[in-house]
Leukemia inhibitory factor receptor-like (Pundamilia nyererei), 464 residues
Amino acid sequence: MITWLLLFSLFRQSTQDGQGEGVLRCGPQNVTLDYDSFLLKWEDDPSCSVIRDGLVYELQLLIADKPEHNGEVVVAPAQIGSTHSWKWTSHLPSQCARHSVRLRSQYNNQSSPWMQKTLPDQGEILVLPRDQILEVGSTATFCCMVPDGESIKTMFLYDYKGTNVTTTKISEHVHSLTVHLDQESENYSDVICETTKGDINGASFHTSYPPDDSDLKCETRDLESIDCFWNVGRAANEHPAMERTYQLQGSSCINGRSGKCSQKVKLDAAERNWTLTATNRLGKLEIHDNADLTKRVHLVAPDKVAASTVNPRNISLKWSWTVQKYSNLNITCQVHVSDGNSNTKTENFGVGLTAAVIKDLIPHWNYVVRVRCGTSQHFWKWGDWSKSVKICTKGDVALGATSLIEKNLNISSYTFMKNAQTAVSSNTVTLNPSTYLTVLTLIALGAVFIILSICTILCYRHRV
């Protein structure tokens, strides 16, 4: 009953104050209009507190004093007494033309007086908006505005290859240029405006892309941290104004532009969602990787690879790990052996594997050995190769050497085998390259000696 009496008093007081029938005292107050964002804010008059079933605010937008848009904001009973807002995105920058907003409240077919806010006109030659970062694929509108006494001669793009460009005369003192931004800028581009008096002004803009990173993959190398990699996508070498920032699991990535980020985390044997956030001035992007990283172990290179035992035909290798937690992992290791002419790989298995044996080698021969490893269970990828190690096998006495000596080196034939050290079977001796060349040299010298001797004898007989 008290509420209805207050409402009756409110309407009656409005009539007595000369506002006329149907005029509501409850309306907006403390109205502000932001010049850059075109955000309208206001509060309710204290008299609105008696209203129990909500208010409606009616809005009218005018551009160059011509109606452009009508809207409304519904205020629920619980919101009466709080601050309200309304935002408009004009097809023209607010500086290009006179923008006004009219606002009034409505309740039970009663309306408050209109309250109007207007963005002021500029009194100088301007091209607006300035220093904009715009997305490729969007459409942008720029305005050139000149004061009284001047008119616009031309308005055009500079250092941008867009072809879909239109200019519009809004008034004698205001022209607009609209361009479809179909490509990325290498640097800042410009919108130039020239007046009939030869005065020139302009505004710069840069077109680029929001983040489009993709293909996030995470792994661990030490079971105490994560390493994540991804494709950085387009505009990897961006203009400084478009620099991207990255966060992995909510923490900053210092060198995110390289497509890599590492962080210390506590790893559990469970699948988790790993999230990378990329942000620039045009947008924000999240990409994800769901994985149990205890099953994605990328082993580091074995350390201090060396030969613990060297024999003529086999070598025992040993190495160590710089990551202590590898001692509990089932590990498979590849041993790569090269003698300069051929390459072989052997695999070895074991928990915390730190040793391997290389067999079927040639005595007194040089080899280059390196090792890499991966997890046996839940294999993810091969780890890094160790540093290469040079190892020479020990020499060995060839079979049959004793019998050869007993025969006073009665060699009936010579066979050169490239990969053999020394080997003897029946009457055939297999020689290494250096020995073989020595024998050939001796034979050649002997042949020369015999030929010279024969020539000497023949010459002597001819003289006689």
Observations:
- Residues 303-392 form a domain with the Immunoglobulin-like fold (CATH 2.60.40.10).
